[in-house]
Amino acid sequence: MGKLQGKTAVVTGGNSGIGYAAAEAFIAEGARVAILGRRRQAVDAAVARLGAAAFGVVGDVADLATHAALAAEVRERFGAVDIYMANAGMNNIEPSAAVSVGSYDAQFGTNTRAVFFGVTGVLPLMRDGGSIIVTSSIASAKVLENHAVYAGSKAAVEAFARAWALEFKSRRIRVNVLSPGPTDTPILEKLGVAEAHRPAFEQGMASLIPLGRLAQSSELARAALFLASDDSSFITGVNLRVDGGIALT
């Protein structure tokens, strides 16, 4: 029997990268999973790969109506939720002096407000003893060039998670943070790393990481599975950095 047999999970940003890998890992351990993404084609393709245990919801996490629609769909299909992984995020790498109000609002809308209202929206559906996983970043603790807004948005969700770990304790709902380091995901392309420049980029990043390489999405997924399952039954309010040691440098 799988570690998540009979459980239900929701993963935002579950159509690619770390979110998709986590959804795949949850399903492999017996869970049914709802993934949320912005693009219909990408969500449908991810669901097709994940199989019959998955279904997809399309919407922008920064739009609060998306969370209401997601909760309604999950209630109809599953009735309740055991695991909620707030994973969707975005990052505009730019110096602070160049940050527009639109860029600031977009990053906080997706990375921060969406996490807060995603969790509060799903909370009435969550079974007692459930697990909430908030995806943050090592950028909240390690200063990275031109990441000020992104870092602030991620520091905020870590504060949410600490507060929720105590706030939800009467229902035995555990709340933990997963903080990836540099990871080999499609977001590298969105950050402007051209395919031709990718080997040099990866080599440069690897030189900064004590373990000498980028993480794979599957490695973050295994950490998410740990936080979702009873393997972490006595763990709440922690920030699990899966970063190859880069936060130490």
Automatic annotation (TrEMBL):
Pfam families: adh_short_C2
Top-rank taxon, per record: Bacteria
GO MF annotation terms: oxidoreductase activity, acting on the CH-OH group of donors, NAD or NADP as acceptor
InterPro entries from the UniProt entry: NAD(P)-bd_dom_sf (IPR036291), Sc_DH/Rdtase_CS (IPR020904), SDR_fam (IPR002347)
Coiled-coil regions listed in the entry: none
Family: Belongs to the short-chain dehydrogenases/reductases (SDR) family.
Protein name: Short chain dehydrogenase family protein 5
Organism: Achromobacter xylosoxidans (strain A8)
Native organism taxonomy: Bacteria, Pseudomonadati, Pseudomonadota, Betaproteobacteria, Burkholderiales
